[in-house]
Specification:
The protein has 93 residues and is mainly alpha-helical. The chain has one domain (7-86). The chain contains five helices and no strands. It has helices spanning 7-14, 18-39, 45-55, 62-65, 70-86. Helix 1 (7-14) crosses helix 2 (18-39). The chain is globular and about 45 Å long.
Length: 93
């Protein structure tokens, strides 16, 4: 089982701040997300984020969506709601 590292732990290894690590991560994910969307325009924002996070071995959940900047995160969340409605997926079991 792989261990997830906190921004603080990563920052200590590289001798920088947690905020810097967070900024770099957001920028990198934004570039990767935009690139994926440009190459796969038929994919929804949710599908693009899910594919990207799967490739990076990151669990797709609300906490990890915070790795994206707010504007993209909101777009992904709206897209996820539409995806769930269209595919008759319920959060209530």
């Amino acid at each position: 089982m792989r261990r997830e590292y906190s921004g603080e732990e990563i920052a200590q290894v590289y001798g920088t701040s947690r905020q810097y690590i967070s900024t770099v991560l957001k920028r990198a994910l934004t570039k990767a997300f935009i690139n994926y969307k440009e190459n796969n325009p038929y994919k929804t924002d949710f599908e693009a984020a899910a594919h990207l996070m799967e490739d990076l071995q990151i669990d797709i959940n609300k906490k990890n969506l915070k790795c994206f900047p707010p504007k993209i995160r909101k777009s992904i969340e709206k897209s996820a709601i539409i995806y769930m409605i269209e595919n008759n997926i319920s959060l209530v079991s």
